[in-house]
Amino acid sequence: MAAYYNQKTKKWGANFSYRDFENNSRKKMKRGFKTEEDALAWEKSYKEHCKKDMSKSFGEFYKNYESDIRPRIKESTWRTKEYVVKYKILPYFKDMPMSSIKPLDVLKLQNELLQMQNKDGKGLSGTYLKTIQSQLSAIFNHAVRYYDLSNNPVKKAGPIGIVRANEVNYWTKEEYLKFIECMKENNKYYYALEILYWCGLRTGEVLALTESDFDFVHHTVSITKSFQIINGAKVITKPKTINGIRTVTVPVSLCKQLKEYVGQLNDGERLLLYARQRLYKELKKGIQISGVKDIRLHDLRHSHVSLLIHMGYSAFEIAKRVGHKSERVTYYYAHMFPGVQENMAERLDEERR
User: Fold this and answer.
1) Does residue 168 fall inside a structural domain?
2) CA–CA separation, 269 vs 213, rounded Å?
3) What is the rounded CA–CA span in Å between residue 136 and residue 152?
4) Which parts of the chain register pLDDT below 50?
5) Does residue 113 contact residue 129 with C-beta atoms inside 8 Å?
6) Would residue 280 count as lying in a domain?
7) What is the pLDDT of residue 165?
8) Taking Cα atoms as reference points, which of 127, 156, 126, 153 lies closest to residue 140?
9) Does residue 341 form part of some domain?
10) Is 52 within 8 Å of 147 (Cβ atoms)?
């Protein structure tokens, strides 16, 4: 241990070496302690935090996981992970030693999750169950890979949650037109909803748009950023994935309207000066007035994909437009592609003959 006293600040500091989770030698220094004992206590605590000790509780190891992973991912992604762990995993495993958690313990948690209900009295969706399972498995995988835990009990417990076709909720074009008719009086929200439906952008991508993102000559919009509210602060980040950086064609009629709307704004200003929650409330108002079925903001993106499928575009073409990989489009929207199974059966029959 190494504590030192700074004559200028009249404070104590800790300066020491330690091993990180990849067993690399690192140096750490922290200043501003009132006493030598405080500095030494902090050093001891920090080294304990970095130890590959799988007798520590799940809650304690989660702190290691956070310090290792959080700097490597987008803050919005981390906040999603954090919410799942805090409310669905930590209440069950928080005080259990990592090395003592067995597949049977994971199985019991899975059974509890299957019995849970949301505020509407419905069970947790297959996609949400899968998200919880994946996050729990990611934490144990990290412990196996970097902290010498012998195995991942989640893998042995088996999967829970699926992505079912009927969980992809969307509007038909007729439903959308009925809805948007109620929103025409308010350009502030109308254009955001129009871009979401006719261009298939993510909500954060729409809220980040400025005039410079549009090419009104070639009727395109460049997607290079996303708007988020993180810890109460407005933040511009990169799109969700590398495929999210793209150029999207805009229907000519919508592009003309947007050009007129953008001309009324200050140069460099975001087109839509509000956050996701405000737009969500307006969506709900429009749904109530129009009487169409209830959907989420993100389901407008699903509705766009559905429209493209029924217009005859392939999974590859759709994926390029919406910033996905083509296999993900096929996986999530396979049930929407009309006549695929029938066509396969007919062609296989021809081959067999």
Assistant:
1) no
2) 11
3) 10
4) 165
5) yes
6) yes
7) 47
8) 153
9) no
10) yes
* 186 and 64 within one domain: no
135 and 244, same structural domain? no
β partners of residue 28: 16
Two tokens at 1?
């241990």
CB 11 within 8 A of CB 33: yes
3-class SS at 152? Answer: coil
Contact 191, 271 (CB under 8 A): yes
Q: Is the dihedral of CA 141, 142, 144, 149 positive or negative?
A: negative
Q: Model pTM? A: 0.67
Residue 81: give the domain boundaries: 59-162
Q: Are 55 and 148 a contacting pair, CB within 8 Å?
A: no
Neighbours of 286 (CB within 10 A): 20
Q: What domain count does the chain have?
A: 3
* Residues shown for the chain: 353
CA distances from 345 to 180, 332, 337 (A): 40, 22, 15
* DSSP classification of residue 319: H
186-244 confidence digits (pLDDT tens): 888 999 999 999 999 999 999 999 999 999 999 999 999 999 887 788 889 888 778 88
Q: Which of 104, 117, 118, 113 is nearest to 133 (CA)?
A: 113
The b-or-e profile of 315-332 (16+ CB within 10 A means b, else e) is beebbbbbbbeeeebbeb
The CA distance from 16 to 151, in Å, is 32
Whole-number Å distance between alpha carbons of 209 and 270: 6
Asked if residue 350 is part of any domain, the answer here is no
Are 33 and 81 part of one and the same domain?
A: no
CATH number at residue 110: 1.10.150.130
